[in-house]
Amino acid sequence: MNYMRKLILHSILLLSVFSISSCNYLDVDKWFDDTMKYDSIFSRKEYLERYMWNVASMFPDEGDFLNSPATAGPLATDEAFETFNAETYTGMAYVTGAINEENITNKDAKKKKSIYQWDTMYKIIRKANIILSRMDEVTDMSNLEKPDIWAYTYFMRAYAYYHLIMDFGPVILVGDQVYPSNEQPEAYANVRATYDESVDYACEQFELAAQYLPETQPNSSFGRPTKGAAYALIARLRLIQASPLYNGRGQTYFGNWKRSSDGVFYISQQYDDRKWAVAAAACERVMDMGRYELHTVPADKDSFVPPTNENQAFPNGVGGIDPLKSYSYMFNGETDGRKNKEFIWGRTTGNLCIRESFPHSMDGYNGMGVTQKMVNMFYMNDGTDNYPEDAKPYKEDGTYDNTNFSTEDETFSEYVLKSGVFNMYRNREMRFYANIGFSGRFWKARSYSGSDAKKEQMIKYDNSSVTDGKHSSTGYVITKYVHDDDAFSSPGGILMEKFFPIIRYAEILLAYSEALNNLQGSYSIELKGSNGETKVYEESRDIYKIKQAFNPIRYRVGLPGVKDDELASVDGFNKILQRERAIEFLYENQRYYDVRRWGIYEESEKEAIQGMDLSKDEMSGYFYPVVVDHPWIRHRVVDRKMVFLPIGKYEIRKVDGLDQNPGWGD
Question: In this structure, are residues 55 and 124 in contact, taking their beta carbons and an 8 Å threshold?
Answer without folding.
Answer: yes
